[in-house]
Amino acid sequence: MNFAVLRVRDFALKALRRAEPALTGKPLAIVTGEGRKAVVAEVSPEANLEPGLTVTLAMARCPGIVLRPRDVSAEVEAGRLLQAAAFTISPRVEATERGCCTIDLRGADRRQTETVLRLRLLELKAAGIPTQAGVADTPLIADYAARQGSPLLVVTDPGEFLRELPLNVAEPTPAQTEILHSWGIRTLGALTALSKADIGQRLGTEGVGLWERAAGETTRVLRLIQPPKSFIADWTYEPPIEMLEPLTFKLQRHAERIALELRAAGLVAETLTLRLRLDDETEHSRGFRLPEPGADVASWMRVMLAHLDTLRLPAHVQHVVLKAQPTRPQQKQDGLFETGLRDPAAFWENLARLEALLGAERVGTPVRGDTHRPDVFILERPAEKVPPPGPSPLHPLRGMALRRFRPPWGVRVRTECERPKSIEGPLEGTVQAIAGPWRADGDWWNPGAWAIESWQVEIDGAAYLLTRTAAGWRVEGVFD
Amino acid sequence: MPHPTITALRSLVDTRFPVATRKPGGAVATGVAAIDNALGGGLPTGRLTEITSPHPGSGGQLLLCQLLLTMRAARQRVALVDAMDGFTPESVPDDALRHLVWVRPKGLSDALVATDVLVRDGNYGLVALDLRGIAERELQSTPKGVWHRLHRAAEDQPTAVLVQTTVGLVPAVLHRLELRSNVGLAGLRRTWTELLAGLTVETVRGRYRQAEELAG
User: Fold this and answer.
1) I want to staple B185 with a disulfide (CB 3.0 to 4.6 A). Which of A184, A394, A433, B14 is the partner?
2) Predicted interface score ipTM higher than 0.90
């Protein structure tokens, strides 16, 4: 479960309806092209039409249909909302295409992510863009799952999942579809039952590509996008408005997106600024300091509406800008010398994410083992607070620090008078200077008894730690 | 003193696009005079700083250990993303490990993902990414976009980001310093104070003076 895909079916339609609630429930179609070439590209289920019909034909078959061109600004706003939702799940997000985001989930806790995904889908639905999600091991299979998801589909067995999917999911060309249908192949499972080599011989490299997509073998590197750095929305009314209702509606929609972006960044709004540009070229601007910094749209709206309800403007509103000033959420009252976590939720969540990605034994605060044996330590859970520093060491710290080679480099050593003279292996050269040996042993009462002989040797101007154990000579690291 | 036209242009940009000119934030002092001087006070927060150690024994690990001590004294959290798993806890006193989160990834790709997560966290005073020991060809094959993403992630965070490499790697980095010491076996008998005072540091790339001018 490494990737999730959020996909909005009929994205242009949903974005338009989100911006214009009056269109809800009406048969609606998005028109592309001009004049006689104009066709309906996306059609709502109420219209019961196939996309691709000419406008005349669509109007003849569905007399009440509302025809609209694409609303690019509504799509941009809906797209940003979708991306903000994705960023609340993981910081690694790709804007795959219009109405589709791919999320890198590697390292995320599976059960928690699934819960968050479900919550986010509910929020997106409430915000006017019902979204489907798929979760799988590769971006491609996650996308297939998102296309099937209602609203969320988690693929645990890719082979089983792909087998029954219709062929068109793998996007064959019309020519490939015709050939494969003539062979009686209608599902991905039926296609992958044939060998890749046979498909390659008959359908060429494009056929191999189709087979790989059908088998879910294709993977790719995500082109990650950056989360937004400023939390701002602006929109224009054409024609300008004079009533509060249309302003309130759009204000709510844009505030929802900004609040989600803030939450994704682990921030909250401290103040809001609302600027209304009027059609007489004047401007009304008002800043709102929130009673408590937060990302709760309902409380934002209460504060802004309390002002707007009493507002009388000399002209119509043409353009609106809403800006949130972000701040870090105040988790607790800091003491004067407090050095706890600024954002404990982010700290523990990120540690859990790294542990899932790398393994719990590879993340933590090192604590040396209670032994004289070199390089023995455990990694512990980091402290909630950094304690005050202990007393300074009695003796000054001495010598370059050792950078270990893990695992150590096995080498062949030529000795003279029982002292290393030259080394062969991953590190080669004549020993120019030497110090040692230092001998240590321990655990002689245990089966895990150890004994080690250490030398410090200089080769090509750099100092290395050379050891001899029962396993032979090894270069343990470099003094750097 | 910059040319008056340049000053006028900067002031115009400042007025028109107040967000475009970032003012330098704080800095994390390393406790190594040569490095702090070269960086104008220490590792800048919200920025990536690259320190290269082309030769073994040039003092990169000593610098890392000194940073642990300095950050410990300031009670600031440190994350070390140790791509080649080379850190040795015995190199520093036990007390100097208590603020450290040591991340031991299994390769370059995991190291970069882990760094991305830690830089965005906001709870660390320093995130150190140690890439020394990784083959140069593999390092150079890192997509440039990864570094730009890290640059962007570091902005607005109160975290200094140190990248330690063997070759100059990070594009558009504000400061790139090179460590050129080579003390050999004799260095094992000197105190840290002597060794750090003797560190040879060369500024390969540094723009802190320009940044100061921009800030006016």
Assistant:
1) A433
2) no
- The H or E element spanning position A197 is helix A196-215
**What is the b/e burial string over B94-118, where b = at least 16 CB atoms within 10 angstroms of the residue's CB?**
ebbbbbbbbbbbeebebbbbbbbbb
Helix, coil or strand: residue A310 = coil
CA distance B4 to chain A (A): 32
Query: Which residues are A421's β-sheet partners?
Result: none
Q: Beta-strand (E) ranges in A295-355? A: 317-327
* Rounded-to-integer distance, Cα A301 and Cα A426, Å: 67
pTM value > 0.80:
no
Residue type, A282: T
Rounded Cα gap, residues A307 and A320, in angstroms: 15
Report the residue of chain A nearest B116, measured CA to CA: A91
pLDDT tens readout for residues B38-83: 888 899 999 999 999 998 889 999 999 999 999 999 889 999 999 9
Q: How many CB atoms lie within 10 A of CB B169?
A: 18
- Rounded Cα gap, residues B102 and A404, in angstroms: 14
A412 forms bridges with which residues in the sheet?
A424
Answer for the pair A396, A420: CB distance below 8 angstroms, yes or no.
Answer: no
Q: Measured between CB atoms, which of A347, A432, A480 is closest to B62?
A: A480
Q: Is residue A267 a contact partner of residue A239, using CB atoms and an 8 Å limit?
A: no
How far are the Cα atoms of A209, B96, B130, B170 from residue B60, in angstroms, in the given order?
Answer: 48, 17, 9, 17
